[in-house]
Amino acid sequence: MKVRIHRGAKQIGGNCIEVAAQEKRIVLDVGRPLEAAADEIVPLPDVAGLAAADDPDLLGLFISHGHQDHWGLVEQVSPNVPIYIGKGAADILRAAARIYSKAGVDITPAGHLLHRELLEVGPFTITPFLNDHNAFDTYSLLIEADGRRLFYSADLQGHGPKRAIFEEMLRKPPPQVDVMLMEGTNVTADPAPAPGISEEDLRADLARTVRETKGMVLATYSSQSIDRMCSMYSAARRTGHTLVVDLLTARMAIATGRETVPKPGWEQFLVYVPYFLRRQIREDESFDLLPDKAHRIFPEALPERRGELLMTFRMSMARDLERADCLEGACAVWSQWPGYLERANSKPYKDFLAKHAIPLKVHHASGHAYVDDLKKLAEAVAPERLVPIHSFAANRFADHFANVVLHDDGEWWEV
Ligand SMILES: [Zn+2]
Ligand SMILES: [Zn+2]
To answer: Is 398:387 a contact under the CB 8 Å cutoff?
Structure first.
C-alpha cells in the first residue's frame, strides 16, 4: 500500500490523501485550504480520476467530517466517484445548503461511515472510528490493504462532550497499525504547551458571563458545532436565560436527528430568522424551512427581553439588531478560534462592537486534542511510524511522540 499526502503535511486545513494498492486508489478528504478567500477557486489536488469523467481505478472518496477544510472542494469532484461520509454529517451539510450557506453542500453518498463497521472497497478494507470533535459525526479511518494498516486520525479531541469515545479509542485502539497519520493542530513551536480548557470548563465560564451581563449576550460560534450549541443551551438553562439560535443553527440541530440535541419546541429555546433569510424564503416560497411561530422570536420582542437572551450572533444579523434597538447593556462572546479575530475579515465585526460599545469576551475550547491527549493516542495506537498531518509544526512532532517520520506534500511513500 502506498500513500501520498496532497495537502496537509505541513499545514492545518485542506487535507487530501491518496492511498493506492493493487493499481486501485481511494482518496481521504478533499479539503479547502483555510487561507483560501471566499470567492477563490482552488483547483482539485492532482489525483487521477478525481475530476475526470470516469476512472475505474479510483474507487472512492472518504470524507471524515463536515468541516470545509476536509470536504470543501467536493463540488469539483466527478459525480462518478463514489463518496462515503457519515449520515449525520451528510444530513447536516444538506440542511445548511438549503439555508443558502456556503458551509453546506448536497452530497449523495454511495455509503455511510459507521462506528467500527467495516467497508470493503476493492482491495481496501476501511473501518471508521467515531471521534470526539466539534463537527457532528466525525470519523478516523483505518485502511487495510496488502496486509498493511494505515490509521488516519482525521480531526479529534479528548476533552469534549464525547470524550468517552476518545477513551474507548485508547482502550480499544485499531490493532497493529503500521503507520498513523495523526493530526497535530495543537502541536506548536512551544516545546511544552499548556493544555487548554475542556468543554465542561467552558460551560461554566459561559454561564458566568451570561449571569454578569445586563443586556443581551451575543454569542458567535460555528453553526456546525452542535456541541458548542449544546454548551450555549446549558449556559442559558443554568442562568434562567433563553437561547436564541439563528435559522441555520436550528435547521442543523434538526438535521442531527438526535433526541438529545436542543431544537425548536424545547423550553428556553427560540429561533430568530434574520431579515435577509425571511426575504429569501418568501421569494423561494420555501416556507417549510420556518419553525412554528410559537418557537420563534421576532424583532419587536428583542428590546424588552434583551436581559434574558443568549443570542446566537452572525454579522448578517447586525443590521436587524441595530434596527430593533436592543443592544443596550449587551456583551459579545467569541466562541470559536481566537485567531479569526486577527484576520482582516473580522474588521466589520470589531467595528460593529466598537460602534455600540459592546465589550468582547473570548470563551473557547479547541475542537482538537491537546498535546497530552495526542501522546495518549500515540501510545495506545503505537504505530511503527507516526506521520504528522494537519499541523503547522510537523517538525516539532518528534519532541512529543516516538517513531515520527516526516513526508512532504506530493511525495509517494510505502506503508
Ligand atoms: Zn480540520
Ligand atoms: Zn475538523
So the answer is: no
Nearest-angstrom CA–CA distance, 277 and 274: 5
Rounded CA-CA distance 378/375 in Å is 5
Q: What is the mean pLDDT of residues 314-342?
A: 96
Partnered with residue 124 across adjacent β-strands are 121
CB 214 within 8 A of CB 329: yes
Residue whose C-alpha cell reads 497535530 in the numeric block: 184
Ligand 2 center–CA 133 separation, angstroms? 7
Does 139 have pLDDT greater than 80?
A: yes
pLDDT in tens, 277-301: 999 999 999 999 999 999 999 999 9
Q: How far apart are CA 7 and CA 10, in angstroms?
A: 8
CATH code 3.20.20.220 for 2-190+367-414:
no
pTM over cut 0.85? yes
Instruction: Kindly list the domain boundaries of the chain, sorted by start residue.
Output: 2-190+367-414, 199-362
Contact 273, 286 (CB under 8 A): no
Residues 159 and 182: their CA atoms lie apart, in Å, by 17
Report pLDDT for 100.
Answer: 87
CA of 31 to the centre of ligand 1 (A): 8
Distance 13 CA to ligand 1 centre (A): 5
DSSP for residue 90:
H
- Architecture category of domain 199-362 in CATH: 3-Layer(aba) Sandwich (3.40)
Per-residue model confidence (pLDDT) at position 184:
97
- 271 CA → ligand 1 middle, Å: 29
State the CB neighbour count (10 A cutoff) for residue 160: 26
Spatial contact of 342 and 334, defined as CB atoms under 8 Å apart:
no
Q: Which ligand is nearest to the CA of 367?
A: 2
Q: Name the residue among 68, 82, 142, 73 with its Cα closest to residue 112.
A: 82
DSSP code string of 342-392: GSGGGHHHHHHHHHTT--EEE----SS--HHHHHHHHHHH--SEEEEES-S
Number of helices (H), then strands (E), belonging to the chain: the values are 11, 19
Q: How far is ligand 1, taken at its centre, from the CA of residue 269, in Å?
A: 30
* pLDDT one-digit tens code per residue, 83-112: 999 999 999 999 999 988 888 999 999 999
pLDDT digits (tens, 9 = 90+) for 174-198: 999 999 999 999 999 888 887 789 9
